Amino acid sequence: MRSESPRRLPCTVLITRPRDQAQELADLLRDAGAHPLIFPAIEIAPPQSWDACDERIRRIADYTDVIFTSPNAVRFFLERCARFFDLAHLRTRTFHAVGPKTAEAIAAYGLPIAPLPEACDAAHLAEALASEPTASQRRFLFPRGDLAEETLPRRLREAGLSVDEVIVYRTVKPDPPPEVRQAVWTALAHGKIRVVAFFSPSSVRNFLEFFPDFPALFHEPQARSPKIAVIGETTARACQTVGLPVHLRPEVVSGVPPTQALARAILRACLAESSDEAARE
Prior knowledge:
five-stranded mixed sheet, alpha/beta
């Protein structure tokens, strides 16, 4: 017996993540009947030089713990490590992750992971690490992106802990073809896109460089402006700084991955809008 197709929602959701990272949210929305549209506002690239990272890798024995806050950092750092030694060499280190997706990325390399913090954010992980009895005797390495938040290393240092940071990837602005940008802008200006999802401050900044008139849609009485959905406090602040209202920002809940929480919030908003439109007909 064939399962029923999901109810089709008249809701197009623009996802500004890199294409490979956008797929999870796109699948969740598509499975629920919405229409995801992927338009990357950022791309992920290697650092301009590996020298600093290579030096940390050569001195990996100096570190007791390695902290990751994104799957990108896991992939770039561990793939670089694999150029120097078998990754089994790292199993004596303790690995920490912010969120289940980052933990899954670490586990995929066969490395042990410390228990996740109660909430999936850097502040809770820093608090958990600082509260451990042996924290002052340990030395932490934090491989990160060039635009990563400073919350985690700052709080660890404030607690008197030793942490070294090293950049293992860069966030760069993509260059979509003019016809693609025009098609997206036309859909936004005509109210065809009902939700725009942002995941980092850099994606907000780049999006406005592509579409400088986007904030004006929220001040035109006749415009059918989209809802803005975000993950994270810093992304919400970035939106507000440039004049974008934040409509959907799921709370950090233990056991619920942020992408799933965002998908639920978006789908609820789409259903509510669909119901309102049906009631007016």
